[in-house]
Design goal:
- The chain has 219 residues and is α+β, with helices and mostly antiparallel strands.
- Helices cover 18% and strands 55% of the residues.
- It has an eight-stranded antiparallel β-barrel with strand order 2-3-4-5-6-7-8-9.
- It is elongated and about 85 Å long.
Length: 219
């Protein structure tokens, strides 16, 4: 009788060890499946060349666009800028430009009564401006190439020569810059030139909008 009881206890112990080992193996397999998924994603690190500019650099910019001289139509304008990047976001520039005013509305209505001589229709300016990059960002062109970009605001003051007189001028506007390489940039610029103009015996505040595209070269 005792032999049967011992045999039964021994079988129960063996069965318990087998079940414990099976449960342990199943838990290890479940943990391994969780920590190591069946489908492993292949993540490749993307390397790309980023065009950027550094502070303490000078830049020469050539531009062409249109200038709307108040009451004298929209005309072709040419400009140039010498810019200096003070920091990553701030920059200053010296801007010069030239254009030629068209006919005013009164000259169109009365062709025989010109207001300005051909010499007085020449429009030229120089301005000193301070700019700030408000929204710097990046534009991905290909998987390996990205361009730094920035939307900036700018304001300044200077002088405009028009209608045979020098006129103190305020200027403000905004623009968009794309850094194509470490030494070439592209610009879209919108600026308003505001000054007092006296043509009929009383000064009038005029606003003259310039829209231009430009290419810059760092050195």
């Amino acid at each position: 009788m005792e032999g049967r009881i011992r045999s039964l206890l021994l079988n129960c112990m063996v069965l318990g060890l087998v079940l414990s080992s099976s449960i342990s193996s199943a838990e290890e397999l479940a943990i391994e499946q969780v920590s190591k998924p069946v489908i492993e994603p292949e993540i490749e690190r993307m390397n790309f060349e980023e065009s950027r500019i550094n502070p303490d650099n000078f830049e020469i910019i050539a531009s062409v666009g249109t200038l709307s001289v108040e009451d004298f139509g929209v005309n072709l304008a040419y400009g140039a800028k010498l810019a200096y990047r003070v920091s990553e976001n701030f920059f200053v520039d010296l801007s010069v430009g030239t254009s030629e005013a068209g006919e005013s509305s009164s000259e169109i209505l009365l062709p025989g009564a010109p207001i300005l001589s051909p010499e007085d229709r020449k429009y030229s300016y120089y301005l000193v401006n301070l700019g700030y990059d408000v929204f710097p960002g990046e534009s991905f062109v290909t998987s390996n190439t990205t361009f730094n970009t920035a939307l900036y605001v700018i304001a300044g003051a200077g002088n405009t020569t028009f209608a045979g007189a020098d006129n103190f001028t305020f200027s403000w506007g905004f623009g968009y810059r794309v850094v194509a390489s470490s030494f070439i940039t592209a610009y879209m610029d919108v600026r308003n030139h505001s000054f007092n103009l006296d043509l009929f015996g009383s000064a009038k505040r005029t606003n003259n909008m310039e829209i231009s595209l430009g290419v810059g070269f760092y050195f």
